[in-house]
Specification:
With 458 residues, the chain is mostly helical. It has helices at residues 14-20, 23-26, 30-46, 52-70, 83-95, 108-144, 164-189, 208-214, 224-229, 232-258, 286-309, 323-347, 352-360, 366-375, 380-397, 406-412, 420-423, 426-431, 441-457, and strands at residues 149-154, 157-163, 266-267, 349-350. The chain binds arginine. Arginine binds next to α6.
């Protein structure tokens, strides 16, 4: 059934119908569509626009549709243009005339704006929860590894020693910001567009505050033209989702490197790895690679919607129907990636000895050796030069700074004494860095405790 057959004298061309229809994907929010309609008729009755009997018949009918869809006895079929048409047609089939009053004081333009908001609002909560599960795992790894030394890198060259707790802590911060972005978006979008009508409100005495409160919005939107044509919140959401993917993708890139034969810092669990059809020895990090790869399609959704929206005059235009498939795909992609990524991290084995050994063999303590000289009165620039020479000597001998005999140190600078070894030991290098945010144990313990409180409270 069509909602708009009256002014037409010909049947719609079948290809036009197919091209125009959105039911294949907007059926995803059938539940939100029905709940929005129930709120709408509840308000219509309160305002005396529907009788209590009409309202009850409609609400019962809508609830029946919801139940039948959920238990699989009712099927959504493609002859309807969209989910709104499907629900209305089915309601009229079920309850007859009162069903024809459902759409009083409403347009599909404010209806679809509402449905999409209700749907994405639920999904923001779901994504936020999945992110928390990931952060709980990251937090556990942090708490267990405040003394697991590893090299910290810049330019992918070994730079200074850090700990596994500190490295994971960096991602904890990224995901914390991601969650707070989701919260911001939720707060900003949480105003109800229902009642905006097609674009200019309605002549019925609707109580928009009431509908908004029934649907747990913070209030009604303030401009009916904006209400039906605002897709900012989806753009913000896709931007936040892109950032989440970007963070996960960086993490995946590191895990892929760490899991390689060259690094062997970690071993991805067999249950999260895949094999090769030809090379029997292979155990591949496909999950990490797929998360990294799927980042592209989430970015794509953001750019698509920005581009779709950029030339649309006020108010509603059909272009906006294009917001759905890409947003749904981005949401489903992020949810899938978060769940798998969390499982992969949770089951991953850390080769602590290899990490520590790697930190020892990259001159990651060279800055601390220079600081030793500075503490003995040598200007930093001179100290930098002296340690540079010692590093060169060690490279030549194939040994770390810790293994160079004191005589060799003294040959280049008489300032060195036996305590240089203590000063450049990995433990000292990390331990001395104890300002908040640094990898030293005391600083890390404070951060880990604060992170635990954050996880409890959020
Ligand atoms: N399927 C449409 C969409 O997603 C619903 C709104 C239709 N409104 C209209 N004026 N044709 O945008």
């Amino acid at each position: 059934m069509k909602l708009w057959g009256g002014r037409f004298t010909k049947e719609t061309n079948q290809l036009v119908h197919n091209f125009n229809a959105s039911i294949s994907y907007d059926q995803k929010f059938y539940k939100q569509d029905i709940l929005g309609s129930i709120a709408h008729v509840t308000m219509l009755e309160k305002q005396g626009i529907l009788t209590p009997e009409e309202k009850d018949a409609i609400v019962n009918g809508l609830q029946g549709i919801l139940t039948d869809l959920e238990n699989g006895t009712l099927e959504i079929t493609a002859e309807h243009e969209d989910i709104h048409s499907f629900v209305e047609a089915n309601l009229i089939e079920r309850i007859g005339d009162p069903g024809k009053k459902l759409h009083t004081g409403r347009s599909r333009n404010d209806q679809v704006a509402l449905d999409m908001k209700l749907y994405t609002r639920d999904e923001i909560v779901a994504i936020n929860d999945l992110m928390k599960e990931l952060m709980v795992v990251i937090h556990r790894v942090m708490a267990e590894n405040i003394d697991t030394f590893m090299p910290g890198f810049t330019h992918l060259q070994k730079a200074q020693p850090v700990t596994l707790a500190h490295h994971f802590g960096a991602y904890f911060e990224m995901f914390r910001r991601d969650r707070s972005r989701l919260r911001d978006i939720y707060d900003r979008m949480n105003y109800c567009p229902l009642g905006a009508g097609a674009l200019a409100g309605t002549t019925y005495p609707l109580d928009r505050e009431y509908t908004a409160s029934l649907l747990k919005f913070d209030g009604p939107t303030f401009n009916s033209m904006d209400s039906v044509s605002d897709r900012d919140y989806l753009i913000e959401l896709l931007s936040a989702l892109s950032t989440i993917m970007m963070h996960m993708s960086r993490f995946c890139e590191e895990i892929i490197l760490w899991n390689s034969n060259e690094y062997r810092f970690v071993e991805i669990d067999d249950s999260y790895s895949t094999g090769s059809s030809i090379m029997p020895q292979k155990k591949n990090p496909d999950i990490a690679e797929l998360v990294r790869g799927k980042t592209g399609r989430v970015y794509g959704a953001l750019i698509s919607l920005l581009t779709t929206m950029k030339g649309i005059p006020l108010a509603y235009n059909k272009d906006m129907q294009e917001d759905k498939e890409l947003t749904f795909d981005a949401i489903d992609t992020v949810k899938g990636c978060l769940a798998l990524f969390t499982g992969m991290i949770d089951t991953m084995k850390f080769n602590k000895d290899i990490m520590e050994d790697s930190a020892k063999h990259g001159f990651t303590n060279a800055t601390d050796a220079a600081d030793y000289l500075v503490n003995h009165g040598v200007p930093f620039r001179d100290a930098h030069g002296i340690i540079g020479q010692l590093v060169l000597l060690c490279i030549d001998k194939g040994i770390p700074l810790d293994e160079l005999p004191l005589e060799e140190y003294k040959k280049i600078s008489p300032v060195f004494e036996e305590d240089i070894y203590e000063a450049i030991s990995m433990k000292t290098c990390v331990e001395k860095r104890n300002t908040i945010g640094a990898p030293g144990q005391e600083a890390m313990k404070q951060v880990i405790a604060a992170n635990a409180r954050y996880l409890e409270e959020s």
